[in-house]
Write a structure and sequence with these properties.
Layout: H1 6-54, E1 56-59, E2 63-66, E3 71-72, E4 75-81, E5 86-88, E6 107-112, E7 115-127, E8 132-142, H2 148-194, H3 210-260, H4 264-297, E9 303-307, H5 308-322, E10 328-333, E11 338-342, H6 343-359, E12 366-373, E13 377-384, H7 391-394, H8 405-409, H9 419-429, E14 432-439, E15 443-451
Parallel strand pairs: 10-12
Antiparallel strand pairs: 1-2, 3-4, 4-5, 4-8, 6-7, 7-8, 9-11, 12-13, 13-15, 14-15
Helix pairs in contact: 1-2, 2-3, 3-4, 5-6, 6-9
Bound molecules: adenosine-5'-diphosphate (ADP).
Length: 453
């Protein structure tokens, strides 16, 4: 049963059900029609005997005259004299009337040689002016001989209903086979993908039924898988690329210094270039490690009840103190905003957004940091009036290593395009999201939103 395909199971179930229903119908027909015909036949015997009885008259002294046929509608009749000696008529050959008691007005069922007979007797008193004579009319019908209608009905059902069951079974099998056909398509697609052959493969079913919807869900999942694999691949290749550039510079500088550096100054310049590049590599590795940890330990956040207001104040103060610029940082922080979260990660999120605002602001620009909380949500946002981000770039800046062209030309020393990816990851780990609103050349607003349940 376990190894049976669903289409076979469904077909089998309906076929068995149909057979049961048909069986029940046949049995019902047999019982009902049997009893109907039995009463019908009994009535037939009674009414035929009664009709003949009314048409018997006395002729001469003891001569009986019968107006009508003594064999009618399968009923055989015999007229007896009062002492039960037959006067007229005969029974069917296989019926023996002798020994059967005469009872007027009652139908008896008599079985002879396993054949049922209905026997009906009627006592009739015949009179004319002078005489009186009592006769008996006995009518007999064979119970099994007449129910032709029932038999033919039953036989018809017996032959047609199994045929119907067969048609239903075949039809059911064909329909379920048709219905499950897309499953094969689904299996092939899933197999191709799990073999790692082709991640871009989709099932692509157009139907809107259950299987169509299932296929759509799978397609969605395959698309996300493909995206995830692609971005993983991209990340590895980007990371290698980012590492290769400083290493190439270091190699070139060392070779140059070994061959050509004559003065102490030349050596120092080479060393400081090497130091700068090594620093870049170190930073990159720190970032990569941080990412890997977030990916691996995402579920194990150090969550605690945090005073987000104090945290935001602290981050703003620290950054403000570390900057020597003419950019002004304004804060509007609602007191006593709390949430459950990882303090280190949320600090990183806030400082990343504020650092970016500094980095991409014009001189003498303004930055606004706001924190609000209401019943619906908690919002932390950072706005600047800096270089802004084009609509196209807004969809890409959260990708790892992505840097907008406008940002590359701005003073982006040491930046690697990893900050926002990290920010988004942290937001997601807190069931929040990062919203960006920006106009190129005018400024940007990044908002971290967490819905309050
Ligand atoms: P990084 O700042 O190191 O380049 P991020 O991931 O923090 O990397 O940012 C990715 C890109 O998003 C930046 O290169 C820049 O193009 C754009 N960006 C981020 N923040 C801002 C901002 N406040 N204003 C303008 N552009 C921004």
């Amino acid at each position: 049963m376990k190894n049976m395909s669903i289409k076979l199971k469904v077909t089998l179930w309906y076929t068995v059900l149909m057979i049961l229903v048909v069986g029940a119908v046949l049995a019902f027909m047999w019982i009902i029609s049997g009893s109907v015909i039995e009463t019908d036949l009994k009535q037939q015997v009674t009414s035929t005997v009664n009709a003949i009885s009314n048409n018997i008259s006395l002729e001469d002294e003891d001569q009986v005259d019968i107006d009508g046929n003594l064999i009618q509608n399968g009923v055989y009749m015999v007229v007896y004299q009062d002492d039960k000696a037959p006067i007229k008529g005969s029974f069917q050959g296989n019926f023996l009337s002798d020994g059967i008691e005469f009872v007027s007005g009652k139908t008896q069922t008599v079985t002879q040689n396993s054949i049922d007979f209905y026997v009906y007797d009627r006592q009739v008193t015949l009179t004319d002016e002078e005489h009186q004579l009592t006769v008996w009319v006995r009518g007999v019908a064979e119970a099994n001989a007449v129910p032709n209608l029932m038999k033919s009905l039953f036989m018809m059902a017996l032959f047609t209903l199994p045929f119907l069951v067969l048609i239903a079974a075949i039809g059911g099998y064909l329909i379920s086979r048709q219905a499950f056909k897309p499953m094969d398509k689904l299996m092939v697609a899933a197999n191709t993908i799990s073999d790692g052959k082709d991640l871009s493969k989709r099932i692509g079913l157009e139907s809107k039924d259950e299987i169509g919807r299932l296929a759509k869900t799978f397609d969605g999942m395959f698309a996300r898988l493909e995206n995830a694999f692609e971005s993983e691949k991209q990340f590895t290749s980007d990371a290698s690329h980012e590492l290769r550039t400083p290493i190439t510079v270091i190699l070139a500088q060392t070779e140059l210094a070994q061959k050509n550096a004559l003065t102490l100054e030349d050596h120092q310049e080479a060393l400081s270039t090497i130091h700068r590049q090594a620093l870049k590599i170190s930073q990159l590795i720190t970032h990569l490690l941080a990412f890997t940890r977030l990916d691996q330990d995402g579920a194990k956040l150090q969550k605690s009840e945090l005073d987000l207001s104090s945290l935001a104040e602290m981050v703003c103060d620290e950054i403000k103190a570390s900057k020597q610029t003419s950019i002004i940082l304004n804060t509007q922080i609602q007191p006593k905003v709390t949430m459950i979260g990882d303090q280190i990660l949320l600090t990183r999120l806030m400082s990343n957004l504020i650092e970016n605002a500094y980095q991409y602001s014009h001189e003498k620009g303004h930055i606004w940091v706001t924190l609000t909380q209401d019943k619906k949500d908690t919002k932390f946002s950072v706005s600047d009036v800096g270089i802004g981000i084009s609509a196209e770039d807004q969809t890409k800046i959260f990708q790892r290593f992505y840097q907008a062209e406008s940002a590359r030309t701005a003073k982006t020393k040491g930046s690697m395009g990893l900050g926002l990816a990290m920010v988004q990851k942290i937001a997601q780990l807190h069931q929040g999201q990062i919203d960006v609103k920006s106009t190129l050349g005018k400024g940007s607003t990044f908002t971290f939103i967490i819905k309050n349940k």
